[in-house]
Design a protein that fits this description.
By secondary structure, the protein is α+β, with helices and mostly antiparallel strands. It is about 15% helix and about 30% strand. The strands form three sheets. A seven-stranded antiparallel sheet has the order 1-2-11-8-13-6-3, with helices on one face. The chain is globular. The structure holds succinic acid and fe (ii) ion.
């Protein structure tokens, strides 16, 4: 018998889901072994749809730089937040979601106990030191019955995990390269954010953190 037959696979070896609360968990290291493949695909996506600093509806540029891949992409401007089928910068469709991205999102959701996740949107966020994301809900998607799958690559960050109300106490969850957070069901509309990124240099991603957020938006 070959060793492969007994290889449980890296996903199975990754730590058991760490529950944040019903509907939400952290999968420590779930994306770690896939990071090299993700990185190659990411470079191609960023070449086709460059990162940019969107402005909030109030007119403030976001400290996080964003782009998208998949059928739909999340954008923000003076007119508000919404999903679009094309990149407003180029007028072309967003780059397709690479199969390795899609597979990771579906596998992570399954590991978190959610079958049949079918993401059609992947928001790509790049944080450089000092960049942050204030507490917010992900509520621009049509499908609230589908979860959010959020993949961390590069520099570590402190994720804020709050509650249904913005004023609910938010707990601080340290996230490192390869961690995946999944939230859905009763936790789907919980507030979350990211504290300002600390200075650092990641051996694999350089001086930044990349977050891939998968949603079913349409
Ligand atoms: C997001 O809320 O869209 C991103 C969260 C993160 O960067 O971890
Ligand atoms: Fe979010």
């Amino acid at each position: 018998m070959t060793a492969e037959l007994f290889d449980p696979g890296t996903d199975a070896l990754a730590a058991a889901p760490l529950a944040l609360e019903p509907g939400a968990c952290v999968l420590r290291g779930f994306a770690f072994d896939r990071a090299a493949a993700l990185r190659r695909e990411l470079d191609a996506v960023l070449a086709a749809a460059p990162l940019r600093h969107l402005v909030t509806p109030g007119g403030k540029p976001m400290s996080v730089a964003t782009t998208n891949c998949g059928a739909l992409g999340w954008v923000s401007d003076r007119a508000g937040y919404r999903y679009t089928a094309s990149d407003p910068l180029s007028g072309r469709a967003w780059p397709p979601m690479p199969p390795s991205f899609y597979r990771l999102a579906v596998d992570a959701a399954a590991r978190a106990g959610i079958a049949a996740f079918a993401p059609d949107a992947c928001l790509i966020n790049r944080y450089v030191p000092g960049a942050r994301l204030t507490l917010h809900q992900d509520r621009d998607e049509r499908r609230m019955d589908q979860p959010i799958v959020s993949v961390s690559l590069g520099l570590p960050a402190v994720f804020l995990w709050g509650g249904p109300k913005r004023s609910d106490r938010a707990r601080r969850v340290p996230l490192v390269h390869g961690d995946v957070v999944v939230w859905g069901g009763p936790a789907r509309l919980h507030h979350h954010g990211v504290l300002p990124l600390a200075e650092g240099e990641h051996p694999f991603m350089g001086a930044c953190r990349i977050n891939l957020t998968f949603r079913c938006a349409g």
